[in-house]
Structure formats: structure tokens, C-alpha cells
Amino acid sequence: MIIPTYNESENIARIISRTRSAVPDAHILVADDNSPDGTGKLADEIAGADDHVHVMHRLGKEGLGAAYLAGFEWGLNAGYEVLVEMDADGSHQPEQLPLLLDALAEADLVLGSRWVKGGEVLNWPRSREVLSRGGNLWTRIALGIPLKDATGGYRVFRRKTLLGLGLDNVASAGYCFQVDLAWRALKSGFRVVEVPITFVEREYGDSKMSQRIVVEALVRTTIWGVAHRAKQLRALATRKKTTRKKALTS
Hints:
Helix content: 40-55%
Number of strands: 9
Number of helices: 8
Order of helices and strands: EHEHEHEHEEHEHHEEH
């Protein structure tokens, strides 16, 4: 399990404890972006007493996507067959992780989804829900994908899935990083399954959501969508041209 952190000193011990209780066999990697509040030091102390907890100290705040990519590399090099994304703030409930792991039996990538039937969000303002639902609707329209929650960050990957996504050329971050990986999985022919989760707004610490992250996701998804639709139109035009040629020569 990869848990990126930046200034999560109020949450890190709690989320590790809950995770170890929910899935005792799981190993946890805390990927800390040199948190000035001492999150990394707290994680080191926990790791010193628990051989299932590991800590990666990164040089600085480089974004969610970069932290996960570093975590994926660490996990793949260590030989893990299943790798999990989970937030440190408690919004992704570790107690629901067994449901996601069970779903992996019939999938290559499992998404914990807020917006499928049975999913829900607690303690969000209406404006935040509208933003998330709207962003996911736009993603479905722009990219032509069926996912209800492509921006969610509670995920379970098979090793083979990550190896097949071309992680070396992923440059996106934030919400956009999550969209990028889900779309790559679908385009690569992997089976992606959504499992309903209950997302709970953090109680402690500050959200890392920013206007920059939202704008990046909108811009990148729009660019990808335009390129995707243009490719579809070119393919359609080529098929029509081929069909006309066959008709004329028959």
C-alpha cells in the first residue's frame, strides 16, 4: 500500500494503525515529500517498531502523481504483486480495502468509486460534490470512457497492469494523474472495475486540493479528448475511403 504524505502528522499514525488492523498482511509504504511538520519522522518511528511499514523520504513537494510513481517503482522492484493507492487523511477508509481486494479476482484494476450505486460522500459541501461529479462527467464525454469515478484515488492495481501502462511517460499530477492511469488501463485492454466506497472528508489537517490541480485536470483532459476524437474521425474517414474503393472495384 502506497500512502503519499505531506504535512499529515495528525493522521499518519491513525491511518497506519487502521490499515494494519483491516489488512494485517499488507505492507505499507509512506512516501513523504519532506513534510515540514515531521510526518516523515513519525513514520520512521512507526516503521522502526513494525516491519510491515516502510518509509520513502523524498526531496520535496513534487505532487501526488510523482509520489505514486516513485512508490510504484519501489513496490515493483520489491516484487509485490498487488499495489494500492490510498490517501493518508482517512478519506479512504482502510476498513473497505478488503472489498477492493476481493474485486481484484475479476479485474486488473479496481477503483473505489464514490459515484456508482452504493457509493457516497460524507461531509462534503454541495459545491465540492458538483465539481467532482461534473469533472467525471466531462471525463466520460471527452475520453469516451464508462467510468463513473475516474478521478478517485482509492485503487488496487495488479503488478501486470502497472507494467503495461507505460509509467515512464506519465507526467500528470493530482486528479489528472488518476484519470491518466485509468484511461491508459482501458486503452491497454485491462479490465477496470468500480467498487462503491464511502468517502469521508478529512477531520485533521489541510486538504491538498487547489485551483491549479483542478485547472490542470480540465485542460489536460480536454487536450486528450480532442486528440482522441480526432483520431476516431481519421479512422472513420479511412474506413469510408476504403469501403468506397472496394465498391468501385467490385
